[in-house]
Specification:
The complex is a heterodimer. Chain A is an alpha/beta fold. Chain A has ten helices and twelve strands. The chains are: A alpha/beta, B alpha/beta.
Chain lengths: ~325, ~220
């Protein structure tokens, strides 16, 4: 069947639940992609599941997901389906919904352990079988590139924050910050707007402001990711935002710190390296990060960029 | 059956008001209730029912239907409601009890502690919030100055857990330990840890914390 939408702008459909989803839809719609949103539907668990987390019918969700797609689900077409904070048990519906919408790609961010899809591998295999690409960024704002053109199109606007900081050449005072790529929750642009007049050379104040404001619920937009110290997605998002600000100001970010430690120390054990880069909020080194998750992410990226090698005995060295 | 259904619709409406991330609906809800003659306590009571519904949905181990983000947004909306309704409340002398609350030294996490403070306030407790990163001496001073019924301490970081023990020791050394009940909570804290440091209660989250504070007040009577 010929694709009537070929050559046109990408259309986005949101399947969401709760304020986490609402905030992102709002940011995306107001942040440059509003005319490309072909629809949004709130999928609440209590409309489909019963206590115990199962369905009321004799067939389970897994056996016949099509049957459980709500009758008021809109008729719409899209290229990219974005899943935001739906109950993990309802992920079985995703392949059916993706096919019904005719999407080419699915973006399924995980910002809370409770929303991890129960059948992650199954839905991934099922979608791949139908030629639909799926990605599970964790957290959403960690994603900066994808193997899929549709998702890359989205990443031109939203994903891992990317900032350009314009400063007064004499004093180093921030004149304004251009948000090249906003976080999906909108906290990056919210913080950028508040930094005009700050001293771009005061690393400690900049990083503290970033970490505090990123989850400041008095702000218009703020991070709603899980903050459990055992699964610190919100704190990792703070690291990514702080590093985007530092890069924008021309200061060394966490990745630079990792490389600098390796230049000075030579081959270093992963754990020793982590001890020198990962700190705590109250005693952080301005150029490091506060979460081990961010450190591990940067290490993976440096390896993919062929700048470091991680040996089988868990040591790291520069290439 | 019809009554159940009306009650369900009402709760689901209140929940949707509390989960509106922009905060527009909570202001409209409070204003329309006040315009129709409801007193602020009644409005708080209704919102509290919605908050409890979200808490139940978050706590239910068999069917968790509300998540971390729902707790944050509903807590924020309760704060908005309090900002609007508090100036209209008559001075309350018969509060359920007085709670001094703070996050221990070394920890700057504010959200969970503030949501708990708001939850307590909306339930009728008088709350003195002494902030985050609070050193032992300030906790002791706050207990001396306010003579609260309950001291609530929060810690999200495992590295700051020993501070809770320090505060309890500090209160004992200053002779206040027997004058105040202590509840601890926050993601780094467990029931076992609470017992090991000699706290009187542990709250896994706001909902359980509120229940425990009510219990502590019952025991005090």
């Amino acid at each position: 069947m010929p694709d009537a939408h070929a050559g046109k702008e990408m259309r986005i459909f949101f399947l969401y639940s709760g304020p986490f989803g609402e905030q992102i839809i709002n940011t995306v719609s107001l942040g440059g992609l509003g005319d490309q949103v072909s629809g949004a539907y709130e999928l609440r668990p209590e409309h489909i599941l019963v206590p115990g987390g199962d369905t009321e019918g004799s067939e389970s969700l897994f056996e016949n997901p099509e049957r459980y797609i709500p009758t008021d689900f809109p008729v719409a077409q899209a290229d990219l389906l974005i899943i935001l904070g739906i109950h993990g048990r309802l992920s079985d519906l995703v392949p059916c919904i993706a096919r019904r919408l005719g999407v080419r790609s699915v973006l399924y961010p995980i910002d809370d352990r409770d929303t991890i899809p129960e059948a992650k591998k199954t839905i991934s295999d099922e979608l791949t079988e139908f030629g639909i690409y799926i990605e599970f960024p964790e957290p959403f704002c960690s994603l900066q590139r994808s193997g899929d053109p549709c998702i890359n199109e989205f990443l031109k606007f939203f994903g891992r924050p990317l900032l350009k900081v314009i400063t007064d050449p004499g004093s180093g005072i921030i004149h304004h910050i251009e948000v090249i790529r906003d976080t999906p929750c909108g906290s990056a642009s919210c913080i950028a707007g508040k930094l005009a007049g700050a001293d771009s050379g005061d690393l400690d104040t900049l990083s503290r402001f970033c970490y505090d404001e990123q989850h400041n619920d008095e702000a218009d937009n703020y991070c709603l990711a899980e903050m459990d110290p055992r699964y610190p997605l919100m704190q990792e998002a703070g690291d990514l935002l702080k590093d985007a600000l530092f890069e924008g100001c021309g200061h060394p970010a966490t990745k630079d710190t990792i490389l600098s430690v390796l230049r000075q120390s030579g081959e270093t054990g992963v754990e020793d390296l982590a001890m020198q880069v990962v700190g705590l909020p109250c005693s952080m080194t301005a150029s490091g990060c506060i979460t081990r998750r961010a450190f591990d992410l940067y290490l993976r990226e440096l390896k993919e960029e062929h700048r470091i090698v991680i040996t089988s005995s868990s040591t790291v060295m520069l290439i | 059956m019809a009554d159940d259904s009306i009650q369900e619709d009402r709760l689901s409406y209140l929940v949707s008001v509390l989960l509106d991330f922009k905060g527009t609906r909570i202001r409209e809800f409070c204003q329309s209730k006040l315009d129709s003659g409801a007193d602020p306590f009644t409005v708080f009571g209704e919102l509290q029912a919605g908050l409890e519904e979200i808490g139940k949905g978050y706590e239910d181990p068999r069917f968790r239907r509300y998540f971390n983000s729902d707790l944050i947004v509903s807590g924020r909306n309760m704060k908005r409601a309090i900002e609007l309704l508090k100036p209209l409340l008559p001075p309350r002398k018969d509060g359920k009890g007085h709670v001094v609350i703070g996050t221990v030294a070394g920890d700057v996490h504010d959200i969970g502690k503030t949501i708990f403070a708001v939850t307590l306030e909306s339930d009728g407790f008088i709350v003195t919030d002494i902030g985050v990163d609070v050193p032992c001496a300030r906790f002791v001073e706050a207990v001396r100055k306010n003579a609260p019924d309950i001291l609530a301490m929060s810690s999200l970081l495992t590295t700051t857990l020993p501070e809770m023990r320090n505060v309890i020791k500090g209160l004992s050394d200053a002779g206040f330990r027997n004058k105040v009940r202590i509840i601890v909570g926050g993601h780094a804290v467990t029931e076992g840890f609470a017992q090991s440091i000699g706290a009187d209660a542990y709250g896994r989250d706001c909902v359980e914390g509120l229940r425990k504070c009510r219990m502590l007040m019952q025991e005090r009577k």
